[in-house]
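Try this one yourself first.
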């Protein structure tokens, strides 16, 4: 059984910051890219950012320059630093082991205007 555990969501005012964390088992983390996705009410789940095992990152256009994805291989943890948050960033954020069926349970991020 592979566990993917997110933390760090919450309520923040527009312009504020949050950092999400996602931990999983060492072996699967070391061998796979990791991704952060989000799903707002009534909308499809979308990729926010992902990062390869080598540390190359990819972002959706709407978060470029505001969000930073990183990974700590020693801790088997991937992070999503979110700055300059906007109300449209409000969603449940999910961590995923890319190219696998393993998802986290999701963490709510709410940005008030």
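Now uncover the answer:
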């Amino acid at each position: 059984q592979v566990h993917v555990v997110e933390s760090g969501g919450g309520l923040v005012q527009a312009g504020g910051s949050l950092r999400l964390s996602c931990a999983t088992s060492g072996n699967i983390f070391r061998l796979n890219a990791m991704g952060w996705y989000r799903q707002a009410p009534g909308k499809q789940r979308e990729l926010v950012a992902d990062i390869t095992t080598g540390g190359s990152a990819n972002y959706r256009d709407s978060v470029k320059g505001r969000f930073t994805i990183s990974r700590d291989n020693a801790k088997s943890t991937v992070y999503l630093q979110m700055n300059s948050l906007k109300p449209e960033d409000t969603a449940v954020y999910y961590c995923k082991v890319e190219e696998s069926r393993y998802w986290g349970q999701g963490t709510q991020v709410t940005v008030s205007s």
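Discussion: The longest strand covers residues 91-97. Helices lie at 26-31.
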